[in-house]
């Protein structure tokens, strides 16, 4: 099968064995549609799927108001470099009141929309199976989207092959994927504190605020939205002093206020993936079906980011 993006450069036999196991697993799926965000996990699955079955693989990217600026364009460019067929679809999770109310199971409704649409498109896409980018490290966090994945028979090849985040990054680097060290980029809705309504206006505020910070050289960051239009900025602890320098602070605060934030705070604990999950009560961590939502006991891990 074509090497796609580039020639394999890995030298460790153990890494090559992991690559071969992943490719073999995907080959066993037959025609496969990869739920492809352009993040490192789904990009590795897309690369492996193309290696496994060539044009019988297709990468599908969902677009909605919760997608950060620039992510679609980056996903499109990566798909071109890999050589895999690529399709962009529109999802309508913002039309679902259960998604908008932003309870701790919000991601269930997002993934139900995504995987439900993909399931309905399989024949049109020329695919038999949906594959996600969930890896073994995703199983330890609150990720209710896995329940939606189970209800739609989604396969998780990275998990099936026992591959965690470090394995994924090593594979991406050996394949020459340019985003092998890209920070995780979960959906913008995951920045909004549970219980605060998700709206297109709020996710746009967050997106523009994070763009402002990235334009000033910051790479690993989150702007979290809290009650009262409060922005809680998370960056690595070593980056905190730079944000309180007078010339930066005096530009940042009015810029965020112009975007719609009334208060701007820095989190002194620094960047923490999934920090909003600390606000979830123990009772909420045992997912209960929402009204009208089916359940089949498939668990609560979602490899594509809830509350990140």
Automatic annotation (TrEMBL):
Task: Quote the Pfam families the UniProt record gives.
Answer: Asn_synthase
Q: Name one GO biological process term.
A: asparagine biosynthetic process
**Which stretches make up the Asparagine synthetase domain?**
20-100
- What protein name is recorded for this chain? tRNA-specific 2-thiouridylase MnmA
Organism the protein comes from: Aquisphaera giovannonii
Q: Which InterPro entries match?
A: Asn_synthase, LarE, Ni-pincer_cofactor_biosynth, Rossmann-like_a/b/a_fold
Where are the residues of the annotated region Disordered?
Answer: 287-308
Active-site residue list: 187 (nucleophile and sulfur donor)
Domain of life per record: Bacteria
What Gene Ontology terms describe what this protein does at the molecular function level?
asparagine synthase (glutamine-hydrolyzing) activity; sulfurtransferase activity
